Each structure stands twice: as structure tokens, then as C-alpha cells.
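Sharing a chain and its predicted structure for anyone who wants a worked example. Both blocks are below, sequence first, C-alpha cells second.
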Amino acid sequence: MAHPAPHEPTSDRWSAVDAYLTSTLVTHDDALTASIDSLTEEGMPEIEVSPLTGKLLHLLARLAGAHRVLEIGTLGAYSTIWLARALPDGGRVVTIEAEPHNAAVARRNLERAGVADRVEVREGRGEDVLPTLSGTEPFDFVFIDADKESNTLYLDWAARLGRPGTVVVVDNIVRSGHVVETDAGAQIDGVRAGLEMLQGDPRFDATALQTLDRKGWDGIAIALLV
């Protein structure tokens, strides 16, 4: 049987594929939709993860058997809701948000989704909040989705606050292909430094995936603490 000619990955084509996969595999509800809509309504940047990535985070947390989840970068709590819904009874998400307005919106969205009782929103910059988590029970899953300039700091704290077997996911590691450039600015420098840390730091074993979806061309790194 002849195979159809391949399509070029144009934005129209990958958007259509993303829409098809999302409608086929991701069940959205009013709470998730409202958390996305709240970004526009509140004048916040619309940089939440895509629905497919949200579902991926949810499944990875379940596959890891996570009871304690750390999220760095809450925004409107879209990804937080996905992660909270992955937890068993007694599970807990600690999510860190630097902007008080974003944190307030996130708390409303968590209440609407019915998961506020299993999520603690910590306000402040990651560099200030993360040290306060030392001495607590280790985290089983860490999602890093904040300022890219601080990726190495966040990865170091993920290793300190995790345990062997903890899963660490870092978002936005391709940046429309700019990750291959060495003079593309501080954000790209931060992404590259984080990836180099994942390669060279013996606490991590990592890989990465490129993604094409409604958020454009990007990717995630997935690491295991060893």
C-alpha cells in the first residue's frame, strides 16, 4: 500500500494536529477552561502550558507515584490543577509564584477546580522561597516553569529537595529554536545553562523532547534524580 506524501510541518498543519490530539485525548472541564480564560481577563501573560502538556504532567506525576509535588511558577494555576488532580488522598502540591496578583488569581482558580485543599501557594521569588522548604519531606515530582535565567538555581534546589527517583520536568527549553544560539539573550543563556547542568551534574539523568502545539515550537526536558 502506498503511503501518503508527508506534509511539511507548517504552523497551520501542526495547529490542526494539536487540535485533533487535544480533542481526542484531553478532556477539558469548566475549571480548566476558566483558569485559561482568567489570564486574559486579568491581563496576565498567556503562557500556560498547552492542554497536551498539562495532561502529560498529570500522567508523569501519576507514573512517578507522586505524593508531594513542587511547582516553580504558578501563573494562573492551569498546570497546578493538572498536577493536583494526579495526587492520591493526602497528596500535596507546593507551588511558588513571584507575583502577588498571579497568586491571587491562582488561588481562585484552585478553589473553582476543587483542589485548593491539596495545594499550597507560596508567594515570593523562587530563590527566597526554596530555601524555606529545606528539611521537609522530599518531593517526588518537580515542575520548573519560571524565569529561565534561574534554571540552574531551580534545578539545584530540585535536587536538594528531591530524592533518588524524583522526576524533574523543565518547560520551554527550545524557545522557537533559539536554544541552539549562543548570543540570543539572558533567557536562552539560562535555558542552555540548565540543559548543560542536566548533562554534567551527576545528580541528574535527563532527556528532552521538542514540541509543536498551540504554544508554538518549544520543548521540555525530563530528568530523573539518581
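Comments welcome. The two ends are 46 Å apart (CA to CA).
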